[in-house]
Amino acid sequence: EVQLQASGGGLVQPGGSLTLSCAASGFIVEEYVIGWFRQAPGQEREIVSCISANGRSTYYDDSVKGRFTVSKDNAKNTVYLLMNSLKHEDTALYYCATAKSGRNDGRIYDEEHQYDWWGQGTLVTVSS
Residue 56: is its pLDDT beyond 90? Predict the structure, then answer.
């Protein structure tokens, strides 16, 4: 069974850093695209970042470009999202997801409708 478990969220001050983890089971991270999404209170879910199956291509939303970094640790079957220079507007529930159609294609999937399996999410709160 495909499972995705996001963790690492918490309370952080503006300008601080936080690393989120997405532990996968039931599939091999190296074979599938992984996306990071977030949903702030009262707002629509939006894509934050994604990384291709082979880890060689990445995508970042303009709002986080230059501040966030997505990576894969294939040995641990885990995907990470390093968040630097955090802002109040980064406060949201963060999810990781994968797309069935994104298997071994080396492509970036930057649209929410392309993703099929979702984790439960981890809450990030940026506040002083």
Answer: yes
